[in-house]
TrEMBL record:
Alphabetical UniProt keywords: Hydrolase, Lipid degradation, Lipid metabolism
InterPro entries: GDSL, GDSL_Est/Lipase, SGNH_hydro_sf, SGNH_plant_lipase-like
Pfam family, one: Lipase_GDSL
Any one GO molecular function term: hydrolase activity, acting on ester bonds
Organism this protein belongs to: Eleusine coracana subsp. coracana
Domain of life: Eukaryota
Family: Belongs to the 'GDSL' lipolytic enzyme family.
Transmembrane segments: none
Protein name, entry field: GDSL esterase/lipase
Length: 384
């Protein structure tokens, strides 16, 4: 699809909001109509940031990329070749898709082969560096922010009409799909909390006003997806940003400490997000929609706090990275140091969980109780 500049992208963040579309499908050819009950495997329509990016950033000129070694070293589907995923193996979106019966991983929207029958398996629109706000992630030059990700889904929506026919495409999306959104972390890490670049924002906008702006934009984005026939949503909140190796390194905290301000902002945003999803579930403005909240903050904090219980050796150090006490300054790349026991580290790099951590997180989101996923888990949502 070629390269995109910032000005050519209309708009599209970590650890926070995820849109998974679980869909039951069979392959078909363009123009064919397929009954909804003929779809046999799951599909995922994924929106978000680098936590779930499957390679979209490979196709744009950006500083936020993971298509270099040793990223992907444990990704079996590629034989250990980097794919653009910001981890050593599968993302949480990949694992959730597998658990819900998806036949294959959702391909990146910008990949040349993401067309025709391939989209019936789902599509991944996520982009490293992306945020809820259009201005988030400027430090990376280019990224596909959430508004543009929704624009891209609109393209897919028209393609589904061509593949299935308008009526069956509507049934396919409304009854057989789960839309998952994982975004919001970059709006803090690479916007409001970014040194120098955020000074103007932080002077002109209070934390409450900034949070209001985030929630207002996210409400509009979820509503746009609804108008495009999305009905089953799972939205992830923002994780404990003050506990990632990058924040711990630049703020020079002790190994068992997290940085307070990023965590406070994440908790404030998460409270607003919870209220928003309750309102959307109960308000009547989006009839037939179901919104589930994935409580990533408490889930990741539990993993970090009690990491030995889950078989990890450290929840502070990055497995792949360089600089500072926690190897948290320089992103993972060919010249980075890398740990030997990758499955014993909660964090793969200064920002992102390892595949081993993603496996645990996914299990709680798919089959967990209301402490970590509410008002129902993803398996229940998928079955509705």
């Amino acid at each position: 699809m070629g390269y995109w500049t910032v000005s050519s992208m209309a708009a599209a963040v970590v650890a926070t909001a995820v849109v998974f579309a679980a869909v039951t499908t069979t392959t078909t050819t363009r123009g064919a109509e397929v009954a909804a009950d003929e779809f046999r495997s799951g599909a995922s329509f994924i929106f978000g940031d680098s936590l779930v990016d499957a390679g979209n950033n490979n196709f744009i000129p950006t500083l936020s990329r993971a298509n270099m070694t040793p990223n992907g070293i444990d990704f079996a589907a590629s034989g250990g070749t980097p794919t653009g995923r910001f981890t050593n193996g599968r993302t949480i979106a990949d694992i959730i898709g597998e658990m819900l019966g998806q036949a294959d991983y959702s391909p990146p929207f910008l990949a040349p082969n993401t067309s025709g029958a391939a989209i019936l398996n789902g599509v991944n629109y996520a982009s490293g560096g992306a945020g809820i706000l259009n201005g988030t992630g400027k430090v990376f030059v280019n990224r596909i922010w959430m508004d543009v990700q929704v624009d891209y889904f609109n393209v897919t929506r028209r393609q589904l009409d061509d593949l299935l026919g308008r009526d069956r495409a509507r049934v396919f999306l409304r009854r057989k799909a789960i839309f998952s959104v994982t975004i919001g972390s970059n709006d803090f890490l690479n916007n409001y909390l970014m040194p120098l670049l955020s000074v103007g924002t932080r002077v002109s906008e209070s934390p409450d006003a900034f949070l209001d702006d985030l929630i207002s934009h996210l409400r509009d984005q979820l509503t746009r997806l609804y108008t495009l026939d999305a009905r089953k949503f799972v939205v992830a909140n923002v994780g404990p940003l003050g506990c990632i190796p990058y924040q711990k390194t630049i703020n020079r905290v002790e190994e068992d400490e997290c940085v307070k301000l990023p965590n406070q902002l994440a908790q404030q945003y998460n409270a607003r997000l919870r209220d928003l999803l309750i309102e959307l579930n109960n308000g009547g403005d989006l009839p037939g929609a179901r919104f589930c909240l994935a409580n990533v903050y408490d889930l990741v904090l539990e993993l970090i706090t009690n990491y030995p219980k889950y078989g990890f050796q450290t929840a502070s150090m990055a497995c792949c990275g360089n600089g500072g006490s926690y190897d948290g300054l320089v992103p993972c790349g060919p010249t980075s140091s890398m740990c030997d026991a990758r499955d014993k580290y909660v964090f793969w790099d200064p920002y992102h969980p390892s595949e081993a951590a993603n496996v645990l997180l996914a299990k709680y989101i798919v089959d967990g109780d209301s402490k970590y996923i509410s008002p129902m888990n993803l398996r229940k949502l998928f079955s509705l």
